[in-house]
Amino acid sequence: MDHDRYSARLRLGLWLHTSHTDDHFPVRFSQTTVALVEEAENAGFSSVWSGESFAFGALSPLIVLSGLIDHTSMDLGALVLLPAWHPLRLARDAASVDQVSGGRLRLGVGVGRPAIQEMFGVDPTTAGAWCEEAIAALRSLWNGGTGIRGRVLAVEGRAQPRPFRSGGPPLWIGGSIKRSARRAAEIGDGYYASTTYTFDQVRTQAERYLAVAHQLERVPAIAANRFTVVAPTLEEARATAITHFGPSLHRYALHGSFGEEWADRVRRDSVNFLEELADELWLVGNPEQVARAIGRYRRIGVEEIHARVSSEGMPSELARQTVRLLGSEVMPTLTEITETAEAATLTRSIDTQGGL
Question: Rounded distance, CA 309 to CA 283, Å?
Fold first, then answer.
């Protein structure tokens, strides 16, 4: 794959909130999203992302991104749950978006939870191997091959159209276990840390990923998705985050996204979830505080922060304020953060070689 686009400079991406409980949400989403995307591009963001969630009613990410192609020149990132897709269909749909966008698609893939795997007929006990073979099938199809015949998955056929970019869109692989980090380094083009990973989880996975990537002499790339609110004062930012992101974090906890222990504690109301965990999941504060928080991620090897700046019911102006402040007051400090982080990342990656 061509990694020229992935330099050491820290970049910002815009994550679009598309989950909804209101049947009229998609209409409002279409009315406000283009303005937010244009604001992000003007602020210096390099990509816009949409993700797949069956549990929370998210809009289909490839369809969302196809509607933005003519409104931005940024990269278009889609995160999909791989077991929900037949590789032939995903290869074709992803190639179509890549063609129409002129080679701007980036595709993130995850194994998903056992319930999703079972919903689409994938055995949870072999889901990891299934996904690795599905990725091999995508690579084959995008390069003009006829699929693969693997241990747990057989894919035969051809996918047309072929992608605009030779070899297909870059593949970012997520996951919270050791095998996921190794998988990303071995067969992916980057590692993706989800919204629900704490800072310590991101750091652990980054160390695992970087160790294998350097052993294999592969160019590493790490992105992290974070709830983000920037406001003139910390008090304003925290109030916005608690009001508009708190319910989402609570739903994730009840769903088991942070593990069953957290789910049980939240159900029993025996924990102030936001006080105990939120600061490990979000970037919230005034511009200086958010810049320092981003610096923590850069020092562990994260090259992209995908800012999740909105939620259902959140006034669009609050999301746009965060985007504007990221561009005008936070991003100018990121060059200095990157320069001090590069040496730390190199040292860490060398120290962790052979450490798995």
Answer: 10
